Amino acid sequence: MLRIKKLDIFVLRSFLLLFVATFFICLFIFMMQFLWKYVDELVGKGLEMSVLGEFFFYSAVSLVPTSLPLAILLASLITFGNFGERYELLAMKAAGISLLNIMRPLIIFVTFLCCVSFFFQNVIGPQAQVKLWTLLISMRQKSPELDIPEGVFYDEIDGYNLYVKKKNRKTGILYDVTIYNVSQGFENADIIVADSGRLEMTADKQHLYLRLYDGEMFSNLSQQQGGVNAQNAPYRRETFREKHSIIEFDSEFNMVDASVMGNQSNSKNMKMLQADIDSMSHITDSIGRKYYTDAATSSYRPVANLTQEDTVRIREARLGEYDVDSLFLASTLAQKQKFMTSATSRAESLKNDWNFKSFTIKQNDQSIRRHQTEWHNKITLSLACLIFFFIGAPLGAIIRKGGLGMPVVISVLIFIIYYIINNTGYKMARDGKWIVWMGMWTSTAVLAPLGAFLTYKSNKDSVVFNADVYLAWIRKVIGIRGVRHFYRKEVIINVPDYAGLPGRLDILTEECRSYLRENKLLKAPNYVKLWTTDRKDDHIEIINEQLEGMLEELSNTTSYTLLDTLKNYPIIPSNAHKRPFHRYGLNLALGVIFPAGLFFYFRIWAFRIRLYKDLEKIIRTNDQVKVIVVNSLLNPQPTHS
To answer: Across the beta sheet with 160-167, what order do the strands follow?
Structure first.
């Protein structure tokens, strides 16, 4: 029996409130981006509010699947960031509840959102796309609202350019009017210059009524006078006190037929896309086989002016049996010119024919790829909701920062990376540079492992964003070591064995000298033996254990002089001077890869030289400690409790 726990209700309620808010914020942002792209289609057209309302509604519905992944990412980041910041996540884990169990109700809910996203893309999205793009095409075809600006040329009236120097907005009178009528072509343009005028819309809103006062009209007559020299082109000049004319200007909004979107891939569901892909693939294969048959059987067709007998004879003849160069040289100049003209004509004809065939095949392939990318996009965009949740939830639990600060920055960065990868893969698949499924699933293949990694690390409470861990690793790779710190303890339980210390120091010194004799640390190591010899260096491990044990014991001393001297002992990285890997095969492979192997070779050599200096320093420090112990600390003072 399914039981809904109070914790599940608390987590789900916390997420839902943030998800609703972030979803509408993301939808608003994407709508602003979309509207900014098509703002020129809306401004100055005098569109009715009902038309604008339809446009906003269908654009919002179309952008729902795009807004869902970013909203889920942002909401999950903020939710689990708030849990971590308020120590609620710590309390849940302290109660024995793992992160996956905390995420369980949200995983079910986000899976439901994935289904909703797929439903929008496969059922509602195609219908919304048809309505949206039909509106856009209709808006583009609608004439703009009549509003003649001052001081600039106005070219929104088809076939006319108007210039008005000044106008009276109250009376509608235009002053210093210049009109270029280019409806008959620029070579036969009419120019009208008037002192004033008025431009009004007719009652049917299909024409403009133009009244001009005190002006002149110039008409170019070069088109009517064929053959006239351009320098002496005649024109007609007409002076008028008042002139009236009618200009066609359809200002009504006329909705185009929705069938114009019938062949677009974004107006179809998956079933229709698959049917069209199969149909177009079959047609393309048929056309390709037909073109291949034509190329194999009739690539060298005879010229059109040959008789039937000549055609049969040439088709049956073998070109290798004739000396073509001799025949060409024996021809007259007129015959040579005829041959060259005929050959050029046939080559151009074949070129145009194959260019057209190539264009047809490319168009069909491009249409197939567009349908295939749209088919895959409906799935990948739905899965992006689940992937973004498995990135945002564990990431919020790791960074433990709520609110709209850090989560927003991280969400935007992750979504930008996703958008770049997804858009690049889409364009590569659409243009045929990548396989369609590979281009469309690239973003999923990149982000899904990231979500799995973050979920695993967060569930195991692993340190992922601790800068000290990465800095320590970088210092280790570069070879930067720390220094020893010793402080006098107020309470000492175990007093050092000062009596046996000189003997132990002598043993440690002898071990160091023995190691220096056996290993020529200052000498460059043999490159081949370095990677092929699988020998462990246990001697340096023994020396390091003896040194650390002695320092642990001497850290309980009450002598400031001895504590200061102990700081001189170096920290020995016992593995730095050896091969980087424990496995023989990996070391051998690294040595074969010469640039990488050469880098580690010089690194190992540098660490060997440093180890030589460290062992020498240990020997010198041993002598100093021995002198301090023998002279001053043979009789240890009582400890203070």
So the answer is: 153-154, 160-167, 173-181, 190-201, 207-220, 235-248
How many DSSP H helices and E strands does the chain contain? 20, 6
Per-residue tokens: 500: 């046996």
Q: How far is CA 240 from the centre of its chain?
A: 64
**pTM of the prediction?**
0.60
The predicted-structure confidence for 616-638, as pLDDT tens digits, reads as follows: 999 999 999 988 888 765 555 55
Looking at every residue in the chain, the average pLDDT score rounds to: 79
- The per-residue pLDDT for 511 is 92
What is the DSSP secondary structure assignment for residue 266, as one 8-state letter?
G
Radius of gyration of the chain (CA): 43
217: left (phi over 0), alpha (psi -120 to 50) or beta: beta
| Nearest CA-CA partner of 222 in 186, 181, 188, 180 | 188
Average pLDDT over residues 458-482: 69
Helix (H, G, I), strand (E, B) or coil at 175: strand
The bridge status of strand 190-201 relative to strand 153-154 is: unpaired
- Count Cβ atoms below 10 Å from residue 162 Cβ, excluding itself: 21
The alpha-helical segments, DSSP class H, found in 400-466 are 406-430, 436-440, 442-459
User: Which residues 6+ apart lie within 8 Å of 151 measured at CB?
Assistant: 164, 165
Q: How many CB atoms lie within 10 A of CB 220?
A: 19
Q: Can you tell me the distance from the alpha carbon of 308 to that of 342, in angstroms, rounded to the nearest whole number?
A: 18
In this predicted model, what pLDDT tens digit does every residue of 358-378 receive, in sequence order? 888 888 888 888 888 889 989
In this predicted structure, the answer to whether residue 580 has a pLDDT above a threshold of 80 is no
pLDDT in tens, 167-200: 887 777 888 888 888 777 666 678 888 898 887 7
Average pLDDT over residues 329-334: 80
Contacts 24+ apart (CB under 8 A), 621-626: 621/565, 621/568, 621/569, 622/505, 622/506, 622/508, 622/509, 623/509, 624/565, 624/568, 625/501, 625/505, 625/554, 625/562, 625/565, 625/566, 626/501, 626/502, 626/505, 626/506
Beta pairing partners, 177 = 164, 194
Letter for the amino acid at 33? Q
Reduce the DSSP state of residue 162 to 3 states and report it: strand
Contact 409, 468 (CB under 8 A): no
What angle do the packed helices 49-62 and 6-37 form, to 10 degrees? 130
